[in-house]
Every structure is written in structure tokens, then in C-alpha cells.
Amino acid sequence: MNSGIYKLVFEGTDKVYIGQSCDLDRRAKEYNIYFTTGTPHSIKLKQAKELFGAPRFEVILYSPIGTLNDLEYKFIQEYDSYNNGFNSIEEPNGTASVSSFDNVHCNYTKEQYIKVLELALDLTNSYNYISQTTGVSYSTVRNIISGIRNHWLAEEVPELYAKVMSIKNCRTNPILNGTATNIVIHSSGVVEEVSSIKEFRDKYNLIQSEVSLLLRGKIFYHKGWVTKVWLDIVLDKLALSKNYKSIAKELGSSMYAKRVESIDKRETYIINE
């Protein structure tokens, strides 16, 4: 087996890049060419090359092709390589096929995963409620219900899975009660009123799908940008409690305790009135 998950390690920083490949030996040779005679495939990696030079290619683990998407996402979260590293997108781009429960590195029981789907049929059940009820992490609940991860469920319980996928776009963020906003604020203090997602994306080199999710209240944060309504919610919660971890957990997986703390200490998102 030569498929698995790898990381690119740069001298002088603890930030990494996480990736997957069906042929790790070939991928290592490709990166050697990219970083010595060519140009890396992303802006983040290009900047990393300019700052730190060529990286080391290290295999994290070998695993069947059908497991790679789930594992890549797991390690992107574990290394925080999207928010604090060199991954340009949070969700893997791999095309690994649907696998079975027995072939996937799962953190929970099969019954827990299926219970998530059962609870998801009721659109009034929030991700946070489903997470607390099943014992499955908030991010895993979100990714199952959104059809991003754990695709083996489509074979395990096809009818239930199909029903959940058919209504996934009907679910709104319960914290925002469906509210969307086009006022966004960058961590540097820049404020923008978004009238065109495409123009906003191009101006700041963002990912259009992520911007759309941000404006719909489905995610909190994208490359330093938050919506004003989300920021107001965080500030309201901080007025009642300084438990950063608790606030971050309540607001979801893209909201980290350190980010809540930075907002509380006015280290980021300072708006010049």
C-alpha cells in the first residue's frame, strides 16, 4: 500500500501543510520538482517557500484510498493547518470513494453515527443539540449532516442517508435564526459591505463557496473575515462570561477559544468608528 496522508514540514516554523495521495512516492517527487524548479500550487505554499525554503515530505500514515478524505480532514483539524498553517482549504479535494465503517478510522460507534442522521431529520435539532445527545463532536455532526464526511453511511443506511441529504440545505444556523448579513469585518479592522460575492472574493483572494457560507451564517470565519452579526453575538456572550472554551464550543467548530480570547482582548477585529 502506497496511499496515505502526508505533511510538508518547513524549517523555522511549526506550521505545516496536510495532504493525501494515492501514490505517496510519486507525490514526494512532484513536490521536490515544485519547490526546486517550479512553483507550488497554492499561494500559501508559494509564500512558505519564499519564507522558509523547500519543505521536508513526511508520511503521517498509510491508509486505503477510501479512507483518505476523512483522514485528511481529521489531520487538517488536528494540526490546525487551515487556520494556522499552509492548507488553503479546510475540506479535502480528494476523490476517494465511499468506504465502509470497518475500513474507516472512526472515533465513534456505528450506532452513534446513525443516531446523528436520525436526529438530523428534525430540522429543529441544532448541531449542538445533536452533538450533546449523541456524544459525537460538533464538527463531525456538521460534516455528516452536510454530506462532507463519513460517506460510508450512504451504503450502511441508504434510505436514512438520502432523506438527510435531501433536506440538508433547508437547515439554517440556529444561533442566527436564519439571519444573513453582508457586513463583514477583517481581523485587521477592515470593514466591507458585500454586494457581490465574486468581486469580494477576487479582491481578497478568498474561496467563493466559503464566502457564501459565511454570509449565510453557516460558518463563522474565513481567512480572517467574520460577519458583523457573528461578532456582535460573540461580544454579547463575552459580556456574560469569560469562559472562552465554552463560548467557542457553543458557537461551533470554526470558532476557536483562542479566537474568542483575541476578540475579548481587542487584539483583533478592532473597528475604527
CATH superfamily of the largest domain: Winged helix-like DNA-binding domain superfamily/Winged helix DNA-binding domain
Provide mean pLDDT, rounded. Answer: 79
Strand content: 5-15%
Helix-residue proportion: 40-55%
The largest sheet, given as strand count, sense and whether it forms a barrel, is: 3 strands, antiparallel
Per DSSP E runs of 2 or more residues, the count of β-strands stands at: 6
Cα-to-Cα separation, first versus last residue: 58 Å
- H-E string: EEHHEHHHHHHEEHHEHHH
How are strands sequenced across the largest beta sheet? 2-1-3
Unreliable residue stretches: none
User: What is the approximate shape?
Assistant: globular
Q: Tell me, what is the CATH class of the largest domain? A: Mainly Alpha
Taken together, the total number of domains comes to 3
Rg over CA atoms, rounded to whole Å, is 20 Å
Oligomer: single chain
CATH fold name of the largest domain, please?
Arc Repressor Mutant, subunit A
Look at the helices and sheets and give the structural class: mainly alpha
**CATH architecture descriptor name of the largest domain:** Orthogonal Bundle
Number of helices: 13
Structure write-up:
- The protein has 273 residues and is mainly alpha-helical.
- The chain folds into three domains: 4-79, 3-Layer(aba) Sandwich (GIY-YIG endonuclease), CATH 3.40.1440.10; 101-170, no CATH class; 183-264, Arc Repressor Mutant, subunit A.
- The chain contains 13 helices and six strands.
- The chain has helices at 24-36, 43-52, 68-79, 110-120, 127-134, 138-145, 153-156, 158-167, 197-204, 208-215, 228-240, 244-251, 257-264; strands at residues 4-9, 16-21, 56-62, 183-186, 191-193, 225-227.
- A three-stranded antiparallel beta sheet has the order 2-1-3, with helices on both faces. Strands 5-4-6 form a three-stranded antiparallel beta sheet.
- Helix 4 runs antiparallel to helix 5, helix 5 (127-134) crosses helix 6 (138-145) and helix 12 crosses helix 13 (257-264).
- The longest helix has 13 residues, at 24-36.
- The protein is globular and about 55 Å long.
